[in-house]
Amino acid sequence: MFSGYLLNKSDIMWDIKSLKKMFNLNKLYKEYNIKYFKGKLGDVVFNVYTQDKNDIPSIAYESTHKKRNGDYSADISFNAECNWNGENIYKTLLHEMIHYYHYVLLGRGTILEHGMLFRLTQLRLLICHGIYVPIYGGKTVKIKKEV
């Protein structure tokens, strides 16, 4: 699955322009929206952020906004200090898109961010598409390789 690490500090600081270009995030978002979420997700803006030393470590987050016309848009932000590679950024993008999808379905966020609804969507993606979307958490993330 993953090559091993996510929250170890990177030797480089990512900026959003290079992150979007290297991993083709806009194209990938559109493809995933159609393939996994039936095109129900609206616009997205990608950002990067740096972790404050007092914050709980995170690799990404999503915030959804309702527009005046009733449509939704989201900001998906990636930690600039993570060692991003193709696999972990794609899975992280899908993870954040699940949160966005629930907001669009329910008109609000869920009380339990990684609760039953998240896990049901996670299971649907695994059964219907053969893709596993991890739930991250804790101070460091070590993901074991599948054997």
Question: Which features does this protein show?
Answer:
single chain; 147 residues; alpha+beta; Zincin-like; three-stranded mixed β-sheet; globular; disordered N terminus; disordered C terminus
Report the sheet with the most strands, covering strand number, pairing sense and barrel closure. 3 strands, mixed
Number of domains: 1
Q: Which word captures the global form? A: globular
| Beta-strand share of residues | 5-15%
Q: How large is the count of helical segments? A: 4
CATH architecture tag: 2-Layer Sandwich
Strand adjacency order, main sheet: 1-3-2
Unreliable residue stretches? 1-8, 137-147
Rg over C-alpha atoms, rounded to the nearest angstrom: 15 Å
| Average pLDDT over all residues | 77
Number of strands: 3
- The N- to C-terminal Cα distance equals 9 Å
CATH level 1 class label = Alpha Beta
Question: Strand pairing plus helix content: what structural class?
Answer: alpha+beta
By CATH, the topology is: Zincin-like
Q: List SSEs in N-to-C order.
A: HHEEEHH
**Helix share bin:** 25-40%
Describe it.
The chain has 147 residues and is an alpha+beta fold. The chain has one domain (16-129): Zincin-like (2-Layer Sandwich). The protein has four helices and three strands; from the N terminus they run ααβββαα. The chain has helices at residues 16-23, 25-37, 86-106, 116-129; strands at 43-49, 60-66, 72-79. The chain has a three-stranded mixed beta sheet, covered by helices on one side. A hairpin with a 5-residue loop joins β2 (60-66) and β3. α2 (25-37) crosses α3 (86-106). It is globular. The termini are close together. Mean pLDDT is 77; it is low at 1-8 and 137-147.
